[in-house]
Design a protein that fits this description.
Strand order of the largest sheet: 1-5-4
Largest sheet: 3 strands, mixed
Distance between the termini: 42 Å
Strand content: 25-35%
Length: 99
């Protein structure tokens, strides 16, 4: 018998941060898509694409919330980047009390 995986609960401040980043991306004219990025057994990388003059960012839906936040942060200007430091590549300055 196959065991059923329980989904990990995402803390509310992280959900809010992810939602805020998605809204920021939308304001910048970038549409965010979470899809299963796999074709013919190959795992594909996500990224930014332009179709008919519209920008689309594709992210694998299996990524953790932390990875999704890190990826979205990498497309936002440094002064708005409060969670991810592109220089160190680590999560920093995150305080759930402040979000």
């Amino acid at each position: 018998m196959r065991s059923v995986k329980k989904k990990k609960r995402v803390p509310l401040p992280l959900k809010k941060r992810l939602s805020d980043l998605e809204q920021t991306m939308l304001k910048k004219g970038i549409i965010v898509h979470y899809d299963l990025l796999e074709a013919a057994g190959l795992k594909l990388k996500g990224g930014l694409c332009k179709f008919n003059g519209e920008s689309h960012l594709f992210i694998d839906k299996r990524k953790s919330v932390y990875d999704k936040i890190r990826i979205l942060n990498s497309y936002i200007t440094p002064e708005q980047n409060l969670l991810f430091s592109p220089i160190s590549g680590s999560v920093s300055n995150f305080n759930p009390q402040n979000t």
